[in-house]
Amino acid sequence: MSDIGDFETIPDFSLPASTGQTLSRESFAGKVPVVLVFLGDLVDDLGLLHDLNRHLSDFGAERSQLLAVARATAAEVRSLAEAESIVMPILADAAGAMSRDYGAEDETGERNRLAIVADEEGRVVRRFQPLPVDGAVGGLLTTVRALGSGAVGAPPDVSTRATPCAASTGSAATGSRSRSNARWNVSPIPDPAASRTRASAAESTSPDSSR
After folding, report:
1. I need a surface site. Which of 28, 48, 122, 167 has the fewest CB within 10 A?
2. DSSP string, 75-110
3. What is the CATH number of domain 14-165?
4. pLDDT (tens digit per residue) in 3-51
5. H helix count then E strand count, the chain
């Protein structure tokens, strides 16, 4: 079983999905962050699946890809997705190889419900294990939003667990956001106070202001 530490790159995968596609790590590498949710059981976790599916557009709004992973065949995940009107992709990990690589299944075949959030380069920024059914979506969305704002992240040589941190305020925070957002290729958040100062200065020096 592979041991995925924080800020390590997620193992490769390539599996058929309920959407009829074959999805892999390379499908999203360098493009968007990925949220992988490993289900304990396809039927028992149906409520969680529906909850995730209802919030699929919220994850899309944060420019991230949400994927569920089930220990089931391609035919089974397609059938369930059609019957339950689930549009979120469900990866069919029939042999359990991906689940074992990610620590969602042990050598005895016992499955653990967990979730992993990785940035657009495939680096693990947070691992939810075990993943609670209640409040799971909220925790995942909070992490993705923090990732987009630069609040989650660490240098490559840091191996401690990542947790979202509260946003700071003031001029020092503005500089911090600019540096953090550069890592995630997100435009820095404009400082309203600085904008008003620049506008006032422009008005005082314009030709019309002397009349």
Report:
1. 167
2. HHHHHHHHHHT--S-EEE-TT-HHHHHTTSB-TT--
3. 3.40.30.10
4. 454 448 899 999 999 999 999 999 999 999 999 999 999 889 999 999 9
5. 7, 7
> Would you place residue 208 in the very low, low, confident or very high pLDDT band (cuts 50, 70, 90)?
low
**How many other C-beta atoms can be found within 10 angstroms of the C-beta atom of residue 194?**
11
| Contacts of residue 86, Cβ cutoff 8 Å, sequence gap at least 6 | 18, 49, 50, 53, 80
Q: What is the pLDDT of residues 94-137, one digit of tens each?
A: 999 999 999 999 888 888 899 999 999 999 999 998 898 888 89
DSSP 105-160: B-TT--B--EEEEE-TT-BEEEEESSPPSTTHHHHHHHHHHHHHHT-S---TT--S
Amino acid code (one letter) for 92: A
**Total Cβ atoms within 10 A of residue 207:** 6
Q: How far apart are CA 102 and CA 99, in angstroms?
A: 5
Asked whether 116 and 102 are in contact (CB, 8 A), the reply is: yes
SS3 for 69?
strand
Residue 57 and residue 189: Cα distance in Å, rounded? 23
